[in-house]
Structures are given as structure tokens and as C-alpha cells.
Amino acid sequence: MSYTVKAVNGCTKKFEFNFPTLDLTNEIKSAVVRKQQTSNIKGFRKGKAPITVVEKIYGPQIESDALNQFVQAQIFEAVNKEKFRMVGYPNFENVKYDAGKSVSFDAVVEIFPEVSVKDFASYSFKKDKVEVTSDDLDKMAKNYLNSKAEMSEVTDPAHKITKGNFVIFNFEGVKADGSRPDNMKAKEFQLEIGSGQFIPGFEDGMIGLKKGDKKNIDLTFPSDYHVPDLQNAKVTFEVEVLEVKEKKYPVLNDELAKEFGFESAEDFNNKNKANLLNQKERQASEKLHQEILEKLVAENKFDVPSTLIQNQENYLKEDLTKTLKAQGFNDQMVEEYFSRWATDVTTKAEFQVRSGLILDHFAKEFKIEATDADFDKKIEENAKVAGLDVEMIKKYYSSNQNIKNNMMFAIREEKTFEELKKKMKIA
Predict the structure, then answer these.
(1) 3-class secondary structure per residue, the chain
(2) Which tens digit of pLDDT belongs to each residue from 102-116?
């Protein structure tokens, strides 16, 4: 094997091959046999034509196939010899072939980079305080009792709209140019204040109003609003309150708690408090982990294979397309969205690739692996939080190797974070 290796960057290598003498006898024989098995030549059954006939008819193609087989074998053998972890497939350049005599070619390959991380012992982070308030429990109870609640009109004329009230109102949006689009007006529309159904600022603008009040609410549509014509648009909403309603929930007693599958009202509160605590703990940990990754990525620069970024970008687009279409986007709207936010998607993909490589680096450094015992423990935790049967969840994750692999990968990252946090200052 005759080649030299040149570094294009930290994750791209260029192999330059030169074979002044070339013997493709073995490769040609293999190519002839493969071609014989698939050829359909007149006068012979498919795959049964004599070797000599196949060679005569398909000679140039066979030689091309043999050369391709030779080139592929050389680059993969060289990559293994150099102990590179290749990403994707090689890109071949400058192929020069003198039939039956010599060949030279270049092969550009991307490889996983060697990640080197600066000392991080001085890094300090603050984890959000985790607690469950009475308001959290009250909201949880209302979610259960929602189907049993009764809607009633607020008869007090002095009552001011608060979060949780339901308002019947007319509204009409007026753009900066004075136009009044049909998609920004409605009569007798019902809205729960605080539900986040309208754009930011709208519902807050209605708090404090009373039945019969009129008000102009000045807002700016979000830059990522799903209707392109309204993105960043300044609009005044003319609002008229027609009626204010509120939901009245029954008191959660032992009888109702049993209907929801709990032993008593106390059991309801205890179990839901524990679930909320687990949920908030998970959210606080995820936020902390994100902050750690952002710091590590910002402080440690290294070349990243473009193939990995492109693959992650494609994954994000596929996932986001499903979400957008679930929200009512058609193909044209999805295309417009990605056209406008392509840079954001690429930036997110690059961050995820970089952070993944850094975590993989630490997992290897700390000698962390996800074991079957870790898998069983995680299944038990998930079952407890969801209130489901352990064996049922285990069967789900074990039924598909990809699903289980994703779980094991997440466990490995979680264990890596735990080791990282031991070596950082976490308040």
C-alpha cells in the first residue's frame, strides 16, 4: 500500500494514493462473477451465461467495477491502519487510471476529532431551588377536577378579570398601515386568561378589565409567528369585554380521590406532591445540564465533521416538521419557516454535535457505561412516576433495539453529568 496522509483540519484527512504498477486480476475476477450472476444475455438463462461471454459484452464496465472495488478496499484498509474513526463516506478526487498499468487518487475523509477539554474545576453553577407549593397542588387538583367543574357567569359588575377567568369578548386587530385582516378579528370569542392561547401580552393586557370595558392593546407579533405576514408586525387590538365567567371546582374529598384511583384525598396530595417534586427536580437538572454544556462548548473549540452537523440538522428538521404540521402548517409554510430560520437550525445542530462529542469524551475519561442494572433502575423510576406497570414499560423499551439504545445512551449521559458535577462548584 502506497499513500501519504495530510491534515486538512482537525477532523478532515486527505489520503493521497499512488500505485505505479497495478494488477486488478483478483478484482476483475470478482467483478465478472458478480456481473455473471445478474446478467440477462440473449440465448442464456439469467445468470447462466459463460464467463467469457460476460467478459466480452461487459468488459469496460467490469474493469470499472474492479477499479472501484480496488479503490474502496485501499481507503478502508488505510483508515483502519491509521486507526481513524471515519464519519460518513470518503470523497474521491483526482483519479488517474492507466488501464492495466497504474492508478493514483486522493480520498478525503472526515474523522471523529480528538476532543481536549480545558480544566473546569473552577466552573460554578447554581441549580434552581426545587419545591412544591400549595398553588402547584391546587393546579394539579384542578386538572383532575376539570371535568366536574361548572362554568358560571361572574355577576359582580365590579369584578376585575384575573388569571383563570374565562372571558367572552369581541376583538379586531389593526395593523400599522390601518388594515384590518380577517384572521385578526372575532365576535363572542371565549378565552381563558393565562392559558397562553394568544400571543404574548394579549392576555396580560386584559387583566383588570371589567364586563363592558373596551381597550386598545398594542402588541408586536413574535418573530417566529407561524403566519409570515404577521412576523414582527405591530398591531393594535381593539377589545370589548362582553361577559366574564369562572369555573367552580368541587372540593376534593376522599370519594372523589377514589374516583381518580387514589385511596384518599391525603393519598392524592402525597402522591401528586411526590410526582411534582420529581418533575421539578428533573426540570432543574435539565436546566443545569444545559448551562454546563453551554459553558463547556464555549470554552473548548475544536473542528467538527460537517457530516455529523448535517445529519443532526436533518434530524432536527424532520422532528420540527412533524411538530409544525401538528400545529396546522402546510408544506409551503414549513418551507418558509426553514428558509427564515435555517441559521438557527444549523446553530442548534452544531451545538448538539459539539456537546455530544464533549460528553462522549468525558464518559470515556470517567470509564462510564450504561449497564443492564442501570436500565432496570431507570425503568422502575419511570414506572413509578407514570404510575404504570414495570414489566409493561420494560417490554416496550425492550421490543425495539433503537428505543432501548436511546435509553441506554441517555443513561450514559446522565451518569456522565453526575461525575462532572462532582468536580464542579454547584450551589
Answers:
(1) CCEEEEEEECCEEEEEEEECCCCCHHHHHHHHHHHHHHCCCCCCCCCCCCHHHHHHHHHHHHHHHHHHHHHHHHHHHHHHHHCCCEEEEEEEEEEEEECCCEEEEEEEEEECCCCCCCCCCCCEECCCCCCCCHHHHHHHHHHHHHHHCEEEECCCCCCCCCCCCEEEEEEEEEECCCCCCHHHEEEEEEEECCCCCCCCCHHHHHCCCCCCCEEEEEEECCCCCCCHHHCCCEEEEEEEEEEEEEEECCCCCHHHHHHCCCCCHHHHHHHHHHHHHHHHHHHHHHHHHHHHHHHHHHHCCCCCCHHHHHHHHHHHHHHHHHHHHHCCCCHHHHHHHHHHHHHHHHHHHHHHHHHHHHHHHHHHHCCCCCCHHHHHHHHHHHHHHHCCCHHHHHHHHHCCHHHHHHHHHHHHHHHHHHHHHHCCEEC
(2) 999 999 999 999 999
